[in-house]
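Collaborator request, handled under Task 6.
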Amino acid sequence: MQILPFYAVCDESSSMTLHIDTLNKALFSLHQEISTNPTIADKTRFGLIGFSTDAHELQPLVDLSDLEELPALDASGLTSYGRAFSLLRQAIDRDVQGLKAEGHDVYRPVVFFLSDGEPTDSDWEQPYQELLASAFRPHIIAFGITEGADRAVIAQVATFKAFMQEDGNADVAPALREFAASLTRSIVRSVSGATAAGAGMSLQVDDHVPGFTAVSLDKL
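Structure tokens returned to the collaborator:
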């Protein structure tokens, strides 16, 4: 079976206090979009990492259809990227190796990285580069949530396509919901195409979310 690991890595710092409720609603929408689609429920695995001064795995990689709800984000501490990237690298290495050991083909992981773009740690770039240098380096889609988000930092983190709400609207829910819908459509097409052709196909993420461009997700 072909599996796409998908991670939401969310800033839980105190500067995100006003946006935590929005993020939790957005994750709920993503959960509903993917887990209730029988065509792809077993083709996608989802993991959730929250970070501030520390980083913790709120939800290890799992089939979303196995969960009634996701754990809630809770704002506290300062915005710190370094430990988040280190934990993400460890989680991806563990998860991809586990999926391969189970006999699955694995797409390169996709990470939806949400933050205010203002890390307080100055040494985060090393663990970030170590993540990109790892055998299972992910595609990172970075989203600047707050109106004052640092666009340069968001763009630096993104390996795919960074995007922000141009009008300063901090509501990330519609964008995350649209991305989930796009991901769902893409997996459905990939599964259908593979069945018709008798072989695997590249997965394409649609250009349906403002600021996105289509990307081919290669298999590891």
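The cover message to the collaborator said: "The longest strand covers residues 2-11. The radius of gyration is 16 Å. Please let us know whether this matches your experimental observations."
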